[in-house]
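re: ur question from yesterday

yeah so i grabbed the chain u mentioned. its 252 aa long if i counted rite. heres the sequnce exactly as i have it in my notes:
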Amino acid sequence: MKLDVHNISKHFGEGLNTKKAVEKISFSISSGEFKSLVGSSGSGKSTILRIIAGLDNPTKGYVKVDGEFVKGPGLDRGMVFQKYSLFPWLTAAENISFGMNLNSFKLKEIKHRTSYLLEVVGLQDAAQKYPNELSGGMQQRVAIARALATNPKILLLDEPFGALDLQIRESMQKFLYELWERTSVTVLLITHDIEEALALSQKIYILAPNPGRIIKEVNVELQKDDLNKLRLDPNFSKLRYELSDILRNLQK
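ran it thru and got these structure tokens back, copy pasting raw so excuse formatting
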């Protein structure tokens, strides 16, 4: 799998009222990689992700998946939003299988894949529960499983843990990292949280705001056997300080 984002810009309005949301964004992701876009409000993170997902069109530039132009949403891209956006009238299992039912998967395959994904996200015992019976973290696990159900080539994550409290958020970060290791799914995460990006990503793109543009690329070469211990690593602290300082200076 190869995702190519080539020189994309997104402008809103016309003439003197034109607002540049993002400008000349380029990067690529190959199969099995985990990369993050990090930036403050106004840096265009969600705009970039929506364009990659096919939910919006760039003003300039293009996005390709395996050499094919992205012209709209597709099964090759699974997306998870900050708000869980589960269907409240469907059980956890039914939410996970929803996309497969829409896309003519065979019944046997739907049952097998739903069962497999419930096991992967640790929710076998919650299969028949409705969203209002699940905690925030459990709901987001269902949302991630649903995004994976159609076997996408890349998982797009739009600040998926931003609405969770600190303890649950760290637990979900650990879950996501282990899920990535287990499934080898390709991941693009957008977040404003430097710690989250460092803990999860192999590479980080730092975005400046107004308009959103990439100003720094950082390869994350840290030992990640234990994410809790990782946060105590002096190298982790050093990188966190350096990147946080860059973001702070952008706000001045």
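noticed a couple things. The beta strands are 2-12, 19-30, 34-38, 60-65, 68-69, 77-80, 154-158, 186-191, 203-208, 213-219. also The chain is about 35% helix and 25% strand.
anyway ttyl
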